[in-house]
Amino acid sequence: MRKILGIVALSFFGFLAVPVQADIARMYYGVGFTDGTMELTGTEGGDKSLGTINATLGFQLMEYLGLELEFGSSSDQASSILSEPLVQYQAALVRLGYRFDRTGFYLLGGQARMDVDRRLNTVDAGTAVGGGINFFGSETTALNFHVLSLDGGTFTTASIGFQYYFGGFR
Prior knowledge:
The protein is mainly beta. It has one helix at residues 2-23; strands spanning 27-39, 47-60, 65-75, 87-100, 103-116, 125-136, 141-150, 155-165. The protein has one domain (26-165): Porin (Beta Barrel). The protein has one helix and eight strands. It has an eight-stranded antiparallel barrel. It is elongated, with a radius of gyration of 19 Å. The N and C termini lie far apart (47 Å).
């Protein structure tokens, strides 16, 4: 009985592996360096500039539609961006885009979760909206300009980075 279950399981996972290999051509990832702005609560003039590093993982569903996950970490000191961040965020986004020759334009919308140092703000989740432009230097790599606003402007990033498309841009 175990042999039969083992063969069935291997066959099942073997069939799953074939479409996954074909779909990897639709994936992309990116890295960006940003200047983030955090609205402070309880203070006058309430904005604080934070250095931010973000990472993006996306999947192009159709020509104009994709899903994207973005992760970021921010601090007011460059040495503590990853070790002791003041703001960390994760966003699940829908990406609507259009490519014209070697330039891609896109809009983002979705939901975000933030882990914020309580001295800055008490917000922990909200909507995420943004957009960006990709300038493709080759079929697979692009210079990326990206803006993302979390929770109605409570935390905003404007980044420059790159994105790598496994199957090339479409």
